[in-house]
Amino acid sequence: MYTIGARSTGHHAASDLRTAIEEDIVTGRVAPGERLDEAGLAVRFGVSRTPVREALQGLAADGLITLRPRRGAVVASPTIPDLMALFEAMTELESACAGLAARRMEAPDHARLWDLWRACLPAVRAGDADAYYDANVRLHEAVYDGAGNPVLAGDTRRLRNRLAPYRRLQLRSPRRLLASHAEHEALAAAIEAGDEALARGRMRGHVGVQGEAFTDFLARLPDTLRAG
Amino acid sequence: MYTIGARSTGHHAASDLRTAIEEDIVTGRVAPGERLDEAGLAVRFGVSRTPVREALQGLAADGLITLRPRRGAVVASPTIPDLMALFEAMTELESACAGLAARRMEAPDHARLWDLWRACLPAVRAGDADAYYDANVRLHEAVYDGAGNPVLAGDTRRLRNRLAPYRRLQLRSPRRLLASHAEHEALAAAIEAGDEALARGRMRGHVGVQGEAFTDFLARLPDTLRAG
DNA sequence: GACGGAACTCTTGTATACAATCGGCGCACG
DNA sequence: CGTGCGCCGATTGTATACAAGAGTTCCGTC
Fold this sequence. Notes:
The structure is a homodimer of 228-residue chains. Chain A has two domains: 13-75, Orthogonal Bundle (Arc Repressor Mutant, subunit A); 80-227, GntR ligand-binding domain-like (Four Helix Bundle (Hemerythrin (Met), subunit A)). A three-stranded antiparallel sheet of chain A has the order 1-3-2. In chain A, strand 2 (65-68) and strand 3 (72-75) form a beta hairpin. The longest helix of chain A has 25 residues, at 80-104. The model of chain A has no long low-confidence stretch (mean pLDDT 91). Chain A is mostly helical and 228 residues long. In chain A, helix 6 (129-146) packs antiparallel against helix 7. Chain A starts with 12 loop residues before the first helix and ends with a helix. Chain A contains ten helices and three strands; from the N terminus they run αβααββααααααα. Chain A binds chain B through residues 1-5, 8, 10-12, 50, 53-54, 57-58, 60-63, 66-69, 76-79, 82, 85-86, 88-89, 92-93, 96, 100, 149-152, 155, 159, and chain B through 1-5, 8, 10-12, 50, 53-54, 57-58, 60-63, 66-69, 76-79, 82, 85-86, 88-89, 92-93, 96, 100, 149-152, 155, 159.
């Protein structure tokens, strides 16, 4: 049995640890640059250092933390150039997914996509950034899966995860929520039409570094980078 | 210090182990599906099981091996659909690199790119598939780096590594060597011209699943899949 | 003779013990 | 008083010991 791309959700202590710590990072409960003490985590989760180390290795492999030899683990704190590279890579991967999704999604998938789009509406109307972020993620995930390529979808998810601590900053303004929702609509239409090039282009514009979303993001960034 | 994308070449036993085992896999010295015994590797490398396990975790994170809970590690043995997904993802990532490289590489980079292209010639003339493969890798790596995006380059490298055990099959025929070399020339020309769309398209055609290269690859595959 | 089950063995997962290196602190010296 | 060196504590890296689950084999039964 060869599972490709999927996150290996084993049943060991190490796997649970991994997801627990990951949660703390992507939700921002532990800040970028913050130290992750092995012994501390061990007592906190009631296990020995061994599974803790395994979890940290895994997080480092996905770029969520940085593991410096003999100097311990810290939550990854990318510089602004790093963040630009991450967003750019994200753009490439997401637009690739969108293109393939346009080629491969079929009627039922389209229906589900529109469902997920409509599910974003309440959050837009309420101006609830957190709720919108979650609904937005589900929509994007549907596109990843719609690409019909577990490898590409896996890499894209990994990147999204890596950016998660910063992504929420993008959606602070009600104006951006509205724009994002409209962009989703155009994207879904392109996918439904099976127009691969258009879908690629619209996804690119949606998450790309040349869009206003990223500019807004950068504008809000310094506050958090000072903290690290 | 936040190194992004780069393989963490630490100085621990674990890191050395990791690269040693990785070598065995990508060069095909250990076949897909083959079991990797922790204790065996430990005695073979003169270390305890702990660093061995760390190395295996890392390899699993990169998809080179499969780690089944309580059942040990085996070299990844993707099915044909898996391989198609891997190649397709590779196509997307490589063409993205090519596009960015077209936008960002400058004169000295172009010169180096042509140097690497010329360095492929002897192997083409000699019909030496292994030598050509190595020179070919160096050329592609130059494109990854030329993209100026360590994240994208890192993901692309990881994928290439994952496919390495199978890639050599593509280059068995002298005819393919010649074709590949010509495709490289066209690619380099597009990059030098700064034509992003053209570079993307040519890279896509070069590594893509619709090309004859992949067809040849599939045709040669059954022999090796039977072995696993 | 074939099939099912239970004990055994082997391997993995986790905990603990030991060793080596890094950062911090204090002291001597300029 | 500022700076550099050496010792000490703390933390990581590795080894070993222990526990638990999976695969296997052998035997009893049908």
